[in-house]
Amino acid sequence: MRRRGLTAAATLLCGVLALTSCSGGDDEGDSPGAEQTEQSAADQAAEDADTSAAVISITPEDAAEGVGINDDVRVEVEDGTLDEVVLTATEAGAEVPGTIAADGASWQPDEQLDRATRYELTVRASDTEGRAAHQVAAFTTVSPENSFIGYFTPEDGSEVGIGMPVSLNFDQEITNRAEVQQAVSVTASSGQEVVGHWFDGTRLDFRPESYWDAGTTVNVSLDFDGLEGAPGITGVQDRDFSFTVGRAQVSTVDVAAKEMQIIRDGETLRTIPITAGSDETPTYNGQMVISEKYKETRMDGATVGFTDDDGEGEYDIPDVPHAMRLSTSGTFIHGNYWASDNTFGSANTSHGCIGLNDEQGADDPDQDGAWFYEESLLGDVVVVVNSPDETITPDNGLNGWNMSWDDWVAGSAV
């Protein structure tokens, strides 16, 4: 009994000694576990010493889709400054210009982005100790199917004639017309009231009651970004532009008299003999605005419905000189070198265009066609009278002046 008790006590004592041996060392040394802990702390301190305090934030988030193309992309940094920001359209490989703010704390693109495009953004910043921080992100901009923009006429900074409206052509059908129209601001330095008119769901024009006053500056603001134009269709445009109205020039074509009188600022500049549309293909009557100018252009009758029995164009002239468009349907005022000189002022022979005597090659400035081309601005008005045809419709070209002011105002959505 006693021997058995001693054995148990010895066993217990050995257990205690074993436990003590496993749980620590003597006073003169550290255990392997302590060495690892101190080493990890040292490594962490070294890592912290090399880590930049600069914190970069990118908007939008990485892998975002449906991103807007105006002000939706931005880079910012806290506790540091931006050193380099590179935004690239991945498919084209083109770098988008951008600007770092003077304080180095933010960056934005300098220009509107493209729709349905994947972009990559690479950012490098540094803190006050010069330690670098890096961040990258990629995103895809909104698709044309889910967005709308308005293509506008005239161009920013242009000088135009007194008949030039502000014309917006949308790339999507607009059903929320009132809100979209309210997002357009058109102001004239002349103080003239300007009203919008919807021709259909994709075209909105603005004009005053009468022609712009000469010398007027017109400022236009489009605030469509984020605006719902139709269910599931959001605007992505935020744009300001302006144009200046030049001198007041109106040219009147008298089809019966076969002549055109050009009046500028109340004075007659010149009276020119013309040839207009024949009795079979007469020229429209009405007020028409010059919307395009070409020193030379091709005119193919097949493109505007003038074909022979074989389906070929009744005419195909590759080098029509000094051509200026008056309608979407194909009415031009242009130089004519293929008719005899005595045609002008004596016979109407065209397919509806107004022809002026000219030379092939468009290089003789003394010809009537060349002179009128050089004296004309986009937006100048050409009025046709005494033709056997009907008056041109207001939406055929930039020709809303052929609508009464009451009817024009009635087409406004606000």
Your description of this structure?
- By secondary structure, this protein is mostly beta strands.
- It has three domains: 55-142, Sandwich (Immunoglobulin-like); 146-246, Immunoglobulin-like (Sandwich), CATH 2.60.40; 249-399, L,D-transpeptidase catalytic domain-like (Beta Barrel).
- 14% of the residues lie in helices and 39% in strands.
- The chain contains five helices and 29 strands.
- The protein has helices spanning 2-23, 32-50, 177-182, 368-374, 405-410, and strands at residues 55-59, 64-67, 74-78, 81-89, 94-96, 98-100, 106-109, 118-126, 132-141, 147-148, 150-153, 159-160, 166-170, 184-188, 195-200, 203-207, 217-223, 228-230, 233-235, 238-245, 249-254, 259-264, 267-275, 286-289, 292-300, 316-325, 332-336, 354-357, 381-385.
- The strands form six sheets. A nine-stranded mixed beta sheet has the order 24-29-21-22-23-28-27-26-25. Strands 2-9-8-4-5 form a five-stranded mixed beta sheet, with no helix packed on it.
For the largest sheet, list the strands in their spatial order: 24-29-21-22-23-28-27-26-25
**Can you tell me the CATH class of the largest domain?**
Mainly Beta
Radius of gyration: 38 Å
Taking pLDDT < 50 over at least 5 consecutive residues as the criterion, the unreliable ranges are 1-29
Domains (count): 3
* Estimated share of beta-strand residues: 35-45%
What is the correct CATH architecture of the largest domain? Beta Barrel
Report the total helices: 5
| CA-based shape | elongated
In whole angstroms, how far apart are the ends? 112 Å
Structure at a glance:
This protein is mainly beta and 414 residues long. It has five helices and 29 strands. The strands form six sheets. It has a nine-stranded mixed sheet with strand order 24-29-21-22-23-28-27-26-25.
